[in-house]
Amino acid sequence: MLENNGGILLNIEDLKVVYKTDLETVEAVNGISLTVMKGRTLGLVGETGAGKTTTALSILRLLPSTTGRIERGKIEFNGQDLLKLDENMMRVIRGNQIAMVFQDPMTSLNPVMTVGDQIAEAIELHNGKMPHEEVNRRVENILQMVGIMPQRRFEYPHQFSGGMKQRVVIAIALSCEPELLIADEPTTALDVTIQAQVLNMIKDLRDRLGTAMLLITHDLGIVAQICDDVAVMYAGEIIETGTVEDIFIGDWRHPYTAGLFNSLPDLRSQATRLKPIPGLMPDPSNLPNGCVFAPRCGNRMDICEKEHPKTVQKAQHRLSCHLYATGENPRRRDVT
Amino acid sequence: MGREETSLRMEKTTGIEKITFKRQSQAKEIWRRFKKSKGAVFGLGMLTIILAVILLADVIAPYSLATRQNMSLKLAPPSWGHIFGCDGYGRDIFARVLHGGRTSLSIAVIATMTSCLLGSILGAVAGYFGKVIDSVICRALDIFMSVPDILFTMAVVVALGANFINLLVALTLAYFTNYVRLVRSQVLNLSELEYVEAARAGGASSARIIATHIIPNAMGVIIVNTTLNVAKIILYESTLSFLGLGMPPPAPEWGLMLAEARAFLRTSPHLLLFPAAAIVMSACSVNLIGDGLRDALDPHLKS
Ligand SMILES: Nc1ncnc2c1ncn2[C@@H]1O[C@H](COP(=O)(O)OP(=O)(O)O)[C@@H](O)[C@H]1O
Ligand code: SF4
Ligand SMILES: [Mg+2]
Questions:
Q1: Are B19 and A201 an interchain contact pair (Cβ–Cβ within 8 Å)?
Q2: Which DSSP letter does residue B36 get?
Q3: What radius of gyration do chain B's Cα atoms show?
Q4: Residue A121 and residue A139: Cα distance in Å, rounded?
Q5: Per the count of CB atoms within 10 A, which of B5, B24, B123, B132 is most buried?
Q6: What three-state secondary structure class fits A151?
Q7: CA A153: distance to chain centroid?
Q8: Any CB–CB contact under 8 A between A100 and chain B?
Q9: Prediction pTM value
Q10: B282 CA distance to ligand 2 middle (Å)
């Protein structure tokens, strides 16, 4: 792929998603906005339950039909609002232009189909008229690209290890050369050593194919390794977003992001001890009025519990916190 | 990737896993695994013999022999002339078992297939689409199931008259409900799995997902149930014949033969023995094949 940087590929604006069950309404995503640029990788970071998977499923319009509902917002892909498309048009986009890799490779493959057939199936789905030999050639190609010997395509998923399975899943996702790859915690279910291998492979392939990526993770280490931009999500909101530099070494830092960094083991300074964020994320069916992070925040002020913080922006770096709204910006060192 | 590739290479050199480099079709692969099970091969052999004998019934013993009455041979025990003996009307039991097999087995097999097809489609639709469609199908099912099977079948046969087609209709209507419930629950379980979600994320349509991901995975359970049902339906037919609601006499039919044998059970048990043996053998062979198929369809058991 040629020069791909610059244009906006995916633009989400003010997206709100709820799950309605008989008992309660879960506000899983609350008016988030984010942008994935062509050829760039956006890391979506946050604790379990922050609404990351819900965001991903909304993009593909795959929310559980009985409970999930997109209440408002816009999801533009190449300038086209996906929320206005019908199911048939969405099917053409799924897999072909936007592909998704799920968290658990153990259950992401059909146990009664050979892995080769599963990749071929994905290719044929979007290339109906492709001759058989061409499909086979592409299956072998893509397997080679993800580091699996092509002759293993006659094997069944259970004959592969976890890491190998995830490679197959990624091969399926990339088989139609999508413009956007959504990877939902693609390495969380793998062993640590395998994690690094799979991550490097994703990175290589992304660079080779020029694919833009929305990488969902709860691991800031992974973000540092392969992301260009970062969005930090908490209780259904994006509380801070910017380039990797903004988030890791910028002047501003949201107290929640600071907490995430503090709970990271730092190999360089053994002196720093692990400091996990105290408390739990608020119940998404009963969110606090003011700042959603207030109940756990060490920098909490009176206003935090009353008023929802506005978003402040410096270049691409944006965050929502009252600390930065007072005009007198604290240095990031002061934020705990 | 280094580590995994190394372990992969080891796995090959130690020969734990022989990797076939030639593409094998799915059917060939299943057949290869099926052959490994002795029971299944035995069942297949037995069923083949049964079917061959039944298909060649006209050559082996003409149909007239099965219906011709000869009172001098009434209840004759097995002999060289009549190897299975004769029944209460002096008819040759061997000929009746052969020709009866045609009716009994074709009713059993066809009724099983139609009920399986009807039930599986309804069950898959109900389980996959859920919501209103599911509710409608399930409520309709409740109505069907609130009437006991045997009563239901009897009502249908009495209303429509006893003949081959009506028996099929009655048995299908009595049995398809099992498949609806079975397939619906399978589909509900399987649709939760991530590979179905993944297929949807890849742009596959509902019909395609049901056909390529859900049905093949539910196949094992469906096949075992189907083979069990063949046996059940053979017995069910017997019950109907016994009650005088099966194929009308003098047409030979295994269930009818059992019913007629009842009167002579103490004095001439051979009247019961041969049709009963035919039923048991057919049912067993079908079950053995079913077990073998289930294992052959499950790639985990591939050794
Ligand atoms: N199908 C569902 N029905 C009801 N609530 C759900 C459903 N899926 C997710 N949720 C809730 O929505 C919130 C966000 O979940 P999710 O998007 O999975 O978060 P993440 O991927 O960041 O861990 C959680 O509180 C979760 O309990
Ligand atoms: S707005 Fe207040 S409570 Fe929320 S993160 Fe900022 S300082 Fe903490
Ligand atoms: Mg998740």
A1: no
A2: T
A3: 24
A4: 10
A5: B123
A6: helix
A7: 29
A8: yes
A9: 0.79
A10: 76
Q: Report strand pairing: A25-37 vs A180-184.
A: unpaired
The two structure tokens encoding residue A124:
């044929």
Q: How far is A143 from chain B (nearest CA, A)?
A: 13
For A178, the 3-state DSSP assignment is: coil
Residue B43 lies in a domain: yes
**In CATH, which of 3.40.50.2300, 3.30.1540.10, 3.40.50.300, 3.40.50.10490 is domain A8-92+210-324?**
3.40.50.300
Q: Which runs of consecutive H residues, i.e. helices, occur in B161-269? A: 164-191, 194-201, 206-209, 215-242, 254-261
Whether A322 is in the pocket of ligand 2, judged by its Cβ within 6 Å, is yes
- CATH for B183: 1.10.3720.10
B28 close contact with A: CB closer than 8 A = no
Alpha-carbon gap, residue B186 to B206, rounded angstroms: 16
Task: Please indicate, yes or no, if residue B218 is contained in any of the structural domains.
Answer: yes
Mean pLDDT by 10 residues, chain A (336 residues): 66 96 92 95 95 96 91 95 95 95 88 92 91 94 94 92 94 95 93 90 93 94 94 96 94 92 70 74 89 93 92 91 75 59
Residue B286 lies in a domain: yes
Q: Name residues whose C-beta falls within 8 Å of residue A24's C-beta, 6 or more positions apart in sequence.
A: A285
Q: What pLDDT is recorded for position A216? A: 97
Tokens coding A306: 């009353």
CB proximity B197 to A under 8 Å: yes
Residue A96 in contact with residue B203, Cβ under 8 Å? yes
Q: A113 to chain B nearest CA, in Å?
A: 9
The ligand that comes nearest to the alpha carbon of residue A232 is 1
Instruction: Give all strands of the β-sheet with A8-20 in edge-to-edge order.
Output: A25-37, A8-20, A68-77, A80-81
Q: Is the CB of A319 under 6 A from ligand 2?
A: no
Ligand 1 pocket residue status of A52, Cβ below 6 Å? yes
Look up the domain containing B253 and give its range.
26-296
Q: Which one, of A295, A157, A212, A175, lies nearest residue A43 by Cα?
A: A212
Domain count, chain B: 1
The ligand that comes nearest to the alpha carbon of residue A256 is: 2
DSSP B62-95: -HHHHH---GGGTTPPP-SSSTT-B-TTS-BHHH
Residue B4 within a domain: no
| Strand ranges of the sheet holding A180-184, from the earlier edge strand across to the other edge | A98-101, A180-184, A212-217, A41-45, A229-234, A237-243, A317-320, A311-314
| Residues present in chain B in total | 303
